[in-house]
Amino acid sequence: MYFTDRGIEELEQRRGDEQVSLTWVSERLQEFVDLHPEFETPVERLATWLARLDDDEDE
Prior knowledge:
It is built from three helices and no strands. Helix content is 66%, strand content 0%. The chain is an all-alpha fold.
């Protein structure tokens, strides 16, 4: 188990039954980056990856 898996598991346990919009998630990610600018690149990569999940790999 990676160290980061613990945070993912905690998120699922604490908030896994909630339904939120992607707007809400985007706002929380932006808030996090504003508070922790050193994590801008990994958050940006995660957001881009999530945004492009359904893109065809052939394009």
